[in-house]
Specification:
The structure holds two protein chains of two kinds.
Chain A: H1 17-23, E1 30-34, E2 39-46, E3 50-58, E4 63-71, E5 75-84, E6 89-98, E7 103-112, E8 118-127, E9 132-141, E10 149-158, E11 164-173, E12 179-187, H2 191-199, H3 204-220, H4 227-241
Parallel strand pairs in A: 1-3, 2-4, 3-5, 4-6, 5-7, 6-8, 7-9, 8-10, 9-11, 10-12
Helix pairs in contact in A: 2-3, 3-4
Chain B: E1 7-16, E2 19-29, E3 34-38, H1 45-53, E4 58-67, E5 70-71, H2 77-83, E6 85-88, E7 95-99, H3 100-114, H4 122-136, H5 140-144, E8 146-147, H6 153-167, E9 171-175, H7 183-196, E10 202-207, H8 211-215, E11 220-225, E12 228-233, H9 235-250
Parallel strand pairs in B: 3-10, 3-11, 6-9, 9-10
Antiparallel strand pairs in B: 1-2, 1-4, 4-5, 7-8, 11-12
Helix pairs in contact in B: 2-3, 4-6, 6-7
Classes of the chains: A alpha/beta, B alpha/beta.
Amino acid sequence: MTALPSRRDEAWRYSDLAAVAALWPPPPARQIVVRAGEQREELLRVHAGGIHDLRVDLGAGAALTLVLLVESPGYARVFVEADLADAASLDLGAVLLAGGDATSEIVTDIRHQGPGASSRQRVRLVVDERATGSCLGRIAVARGAQKTDAALSARALVLKRTATANLKPELEIFADDVQCAHGCTVGELDKSALFYLQSRGIGRVEAEALLTRAFVADGFTRLKAGPARDALEAATAQWLEARL
Amino acid sequence: MKPVPMLEIINLHACVGDKPILKGLSLSVGAGEVHAIMGPNGAGKSTLSYVLAGREGYAVTAGSATFEGADLLAMEPHERAAAGLFLGFQYPVEIPGVSNLLFLRTALNAQKRLRGEAEISGADFMKLVRVESAVLGLDMEMLKRGVNVGFSGGEKKRNEAFQLGMLQPKFALLDETDSGLDIDALRIVSEGINRFRRPDRGVLLITHYQRLLDHVRPDFVHILAGGRIVESGGPELAMRVETEGYEGIAA
């Protein structure tokens, strides 16, 4: 990809194109290769914007847990392109937190190339103020990739009605014995839950932070308990506290 | 000289949207007293509890409500809680992803901070949890789950009584605490309320039925109909409701 993308490119239709032009050309993709039968955990934390491409190759029976946290001002984009060989498994948990005038987006293209592979994508977007958060998630199942088991769950939480969330799941399936599920929801904080917390003595903003942390928690669940996970959770808590 | 009542409501008018629900409700509850408000569906019972607790969307158009002399209606919901007012919900809310323990510890410490008290230590908190949960038959595994998530109707009400025990408020406003409870759960929850009773605390029970009042004996009973108290009396008034129905009394 060398030409500067335009609004007509589907994968860039919600991008901040002025910011993209300033960042063009993007740095080369980070390669994540997990050899046949091996297992790995990878993290990416984006806090200073930019275009981040991840090129994932999973060998037969390989397993990757990929966890992303984007909490950045300005423009931040993560693109995950993955090829899954026979019986490989990919678990992607992504949390995007966007406030102010930030534009944060995640674009995925998860390609099941061999039979029996599984993929899980859990994307949680939180948008506040005038921010835009987008998730374009694609699952592609190649001819012959029977018994594919793929699921994409993308959920957006809109903290202020001036913010924008775009969610677009896409399935392309060329095999006939597969399970592919996708679910997208956009919502606000549950008012009755907020009142319940407040009625017990928790202030409005603290109550919002507690519910928002619960909302994004799904993104980090597959990460083993430890310093890495603690750091992501602390960064999330910090982002929420900064709203005070 | 009569002392200042804990909760004093004078000529309260409130709307939900454009619709007037409370139309001049007056009520005074003193320390050490248990009052029961009974009334037919749509009388304004739940509206009263939400107005007192400060829920959004319930607008007070006239009248006043004071708690220990302070203007209750001027406070934010969490400030009312810290002042000592506890609302037991008719339909406790499920909050996935926030455990009961995290929720209660956050609430307890938020209240303490607002009152200028020291926060509770982790060890003292867990000690309190063990004592209070044992009384209500809630096990620790349940308390580690999300707030009310997967709880049966009876377990949710027991959890309300558990929170009442944990937070130690001065005043309990209990909205249809008896609805959805079987006989055993009703007895357990009633014991929770009776343990809460003290000379320096007040209780306002909102209920449809006389059943709860067999277990928690009120000092005063009020009938709410059409947005105002139409009759007040002792426990015998609840018995009359049972035999004559609300229509007989309101007439």
